[in-house]
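Exercise 7b. C-alpha cells:
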C-alpha cells in the first residue's frame, strides 16, 4: 500500500485533467464521472487523513446525509455533490510549483530579508510580516500563505512553539484577509458585485479604507502582544543590499506579470478566476525559471515536491470533498429557506440587517458553510437587500463581512493549509482569530454606514 501511495499523483492528476476538460466542455455525464472519482479519492484518503480531519469529514457527511434525506435529490445526484471542490484540490496540487520557482530563484532569501531585516523584536516583525503578506496575497493568493509560513517557521525556529504558531497564524491569515478586501480577483468581492451590480471602481476606495483601518488596528495589537519577545536577524541579512534591491525589482515585475496573465485569462478569455490562477501557475513558474536561468534547479526542486505534495493531499481531499457534499445537499434541502426568513423579518431596520448579515456570515462559517454559500443565501433575497441599501453600500457590507470570516473559517482553505503547516487543530486557529474577524466585520459595517451618507 505504501508503494501504491507513491503513485497516487497519477490518479489525482487524471481526475484534475477531467475537470479541465469539463471547464471547456460542460457535460453533465462527465461532471458525474468526476464526482464518482471524487468519491473514490475520498475513500482512498480517509484512512490516510489525520484524526482531526477524519472527525470533520464524518460530521460533514452525517449532516449532509440529513440534508440529502430531507431534499428531493436522488441517489444519482450524489456524485454531483462530490464534484464541486475538485477545482480547489487542483489548485492545491499546483501551488508547490510557485513555491519551487521562488526557492529556485532564491527569492525566498529576499522575502526573508523583507520579513526580518531591521526587525528588533517579534513586535516589529509582526507589523512587517503582515504588510508583506498583504502585498504578496494580492498577487500570489494562496501561494503567499505557504511561502510566508515556510519562511516564518524557519526564521522563528528558536522561538517557543506556542508563541511561534500564534505569531504565524495571526500575521499570515489576517494579512491574507486584508489583501482580499480590495483585490479585484477575490471571488467573494466579485460575487458581491455580481449580486448588487455595483461598479468596482466606486467600491474600491471604501474597501481600501477598511483594509487600511484593519492593518492599523491589527498591527497595533500584534506589536503590543509580541513586543516582549526578541529575535536575532540572520547575519546574511546585513549584506548584499544591492543584490536584494535587484531581486526585489525582479520579484515585483514577475508578480505584476502573473497578475496580468490571470486578469487576461479572466477578463479576455472569460475563464473563472480560480481556474485561471490554477492553469497559470506551472507555465508562468516555468517561464520565470527560464528567464532567471534557473530551469534545472526549478525542475529539480519542483518535480519531487509536486509529487510528494500531491500524494499527500489526503487531509484536503477529505475536508473539501465532504464539504462539497454538505454544501450541495444544504442548497437542495428545504432548510435553506429557514436561513433566509430572519432577514425578511428585519425589513426597515438597516443597522439590524447589517448586524444580522455579519452574524450570519460568522456563525455559518464556523459551522462549516463556505462564505460563498452564505453569499448565495443573501443573493436569494437580493431584491430585499437592494431595496434597503444602495449598491455600493451593500457591496461593501457583504464583501467585508464575508472576507472578515476568512481567518476564522475552520473548514476554509487558508485555515486548513495553516492547520496542516503548523500541525494545529483548525478550531485553535479559529479561537485565536475570532476577535479579529468580529472587529473587521464591525469596521466593514462602520464604513458601510458611512457610504449611506454619500449614496
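Sequence design result:
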Amino acid at each position: 500500500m505504501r508503494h501504491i501511495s507513491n503513485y497516487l499523483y497519477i490518479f489525482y492528476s487524471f481526475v484534475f485533467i477531467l475537470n479541465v476538460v469539463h471547464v471547456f466542455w460542460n457535460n453533465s455525464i462527465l461532471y458525474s464521472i468526476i464526482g464518482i472519482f471524487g468519491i473514490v479519492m475520498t475513500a482512498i484518503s480517509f484512512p490516510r487523513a489525520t484524526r482531526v480531519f477524519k472527525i470533520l469529514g464524518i460530521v460533514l457527511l452525517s449532516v449532509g446525509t440529513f440534508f440529502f434525506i430531507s431534499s428531493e435529490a436522488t441517489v444519482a445526484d450524489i456524485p454531483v455533490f462530490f464534484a464541486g471542490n475538485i477545482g480547489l484540490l487542483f489548485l492545491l496540487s499546483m501551488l508547490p510549483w510557485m513555491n519551487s520557482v521562488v526557492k529556485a530563484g532564491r527569492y525566498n532569501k529576499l522575502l526573508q530579508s523583507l520579513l526580518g531585516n531591521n526587525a528588533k523584536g517579534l513586535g516589529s516583525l509582526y507589523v512587517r510580516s503582515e504588510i508583506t503578506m498583504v502585498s504578496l496575497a494580492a498577487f500570489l493568493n494562496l501561494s503567499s500563505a505557504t511561502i510566508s509560513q515556510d519562511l516564518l517557521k524557519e526564521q522563528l525556529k528558536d522561538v517557543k512553539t506556542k508563541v511561534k504558531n500564534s505569531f504565524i497564524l495571526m500575521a499570515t491569515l489576517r494579512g491574507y484577509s486584508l489583501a482580499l478586501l480590495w483585490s479585484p480577483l477575490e471571488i467573494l468581492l466579485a460575487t458581491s458585485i455580481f449580486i448588487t451590480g455595483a461598479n468596482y471602481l466606486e467600491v474600491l476606495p471604501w474597501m481600501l479604507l477598511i483594509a487600511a483601518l484593519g492593518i492599523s488596528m491589527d498591527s497595533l495589537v500584534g506589536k503590543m502582544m509580541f513586543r516582549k519577545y526578541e529575535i536575532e536577524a540572520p547575519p546574511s541579512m546585513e549584506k548584499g543590499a544591492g543584490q536584494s534591491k535587484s531581486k526585489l525589482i525582479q520579484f515585483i515585475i514577475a508578480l505584476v506579470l502573473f497578475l496580468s496573465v490571470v486578469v487576461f485569462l479572466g477578463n479576455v478569455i472569460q475563464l473563472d478566476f480560480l481556474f485561471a490562477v490554477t492553469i497559470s501557475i506551472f507555465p508562468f513558474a516555468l517561464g520565470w525559471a527560464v528567464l532567471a536561468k534557473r530551469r534545472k534547479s526549478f525542475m529539480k526542486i519542483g518535480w519531487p515536491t509536486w509529487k510528494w505534495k500531491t500524494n499527500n493531499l489526503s487531509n484536503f481531499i477529505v475536508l473539501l470533498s465532504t464539504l462539497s457534499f454538505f454544501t450541495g445537499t444544504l442548497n437542495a434541502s428545504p432548510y435553506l429557506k429557514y436561513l433566509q426568513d430572519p432577514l425578511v423579518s428585519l425589513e426597515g431596520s438597516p443597522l439590524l440587517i447589517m448586524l444580522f448579515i455579519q452574524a450570519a456570515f460568522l456563525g455559518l462559517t464556523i459551522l462549516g458553510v463556505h462564505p460563498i454559500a452564505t453569499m448565495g443565501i443573501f443573493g436569494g433575497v437580493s431584491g430585499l437587500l437592494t431595496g434597503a441599501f444602495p449598491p455600493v453600500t451593500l457591496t461593501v457590507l457583504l464583501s467585508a463581512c464575508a472576507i472578515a470570516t476568512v481567518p476564522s473559517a475552520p473548514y476554509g482553505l487558508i485555515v486548513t493549509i495553516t492547520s496542516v503547516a503548523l500541525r494545529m487543530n483548525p478550531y485553535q486557529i479559529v479561537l485565536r482569530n475570532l476577535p479579529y474577524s468580529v472587529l473587521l466585520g464591525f469596521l466593514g459595517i462602520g464604513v458601510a454606514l458611512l457610504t449611506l451618507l454619500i449614496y
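Instructor comment: Residues 1-83+313-333 form one domain. Residues 241-268 form the longest helix (28 residues).
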